[in-house]
Amino acid sequence: MHSLKIRPATVKDVPSIVKIRKETVTEENIIEFGVPEDNMYTSIEKLREMWAFENKLNNDFEVFVAEDQDMVIGFIVFTVKSDDNIDNIVVAKKEQGKGVGRALVEYVESLAKSRGFHVIQTDTTENSKGVAWKAYGFWLKMGYEDSGIRVSTEYDFKVIPLAKKLK
Predict the structure, then answer these.
(1) What whole-number distance in Å separates Cα of residue 14 and Cα of residue 43?
(2) Residue 99 sits in which domain range?
(3) Number of Cα atoms under 13 Å in the Cβ half of residue 116
(4) pLDDT tens, position by position, 52-93
(5) Which CATH number is 137's domain given?
(6) Which of 43, 100, 103, 151 has minimal Cβ neighbours within 10 Å of its Cβ?
(7) CA-CA distance, 62 to 77, in Å (whole number)?
(8) Which element (helix H / strand E) includes 11?
(9) Distance CA 133, CA 160 (A)
């Protein structure tokens, strides 16, 4: 990584966001951990339809991208209108483990703090066998605490709410 830059996404970033999401979170590796693919982040058309203005989607979610040498290598989706302030984060496979996810989360945490947040929340999932999705360890390393609660869904997985106090 030469020059990591986090910036508000634009509608021009939609193809890159969709490409990263499709390459990184495939149907095979999300089985038992997520909703079958009807995800706006996997369709250029759906995501463009959701785009409202600047970096905002029409559901009040804000999208930020991580760039290295003018290439989008990750994205994060943040909102103040939901219990899950961090709705989605995906880093390109070949860029994982290099601090991109950490930089995206720290950027959004700083933004949340500047907007008066004292706590920021997200979630991940666990399958029916009690095995957590791979992001679980990342969130713990980032200082998020497991609520101890498991929320059932209509699918074969449970949601694990996580939260972090902002200092």
Answers:
(1) 9
(2) 4-165
(3) 1
(4) 777 787 778 899 999 999 999 999 999 877 666 998 899 999
(5) 3.40.630.30
(6) 151
(7) 6
(8) none
(9) 10
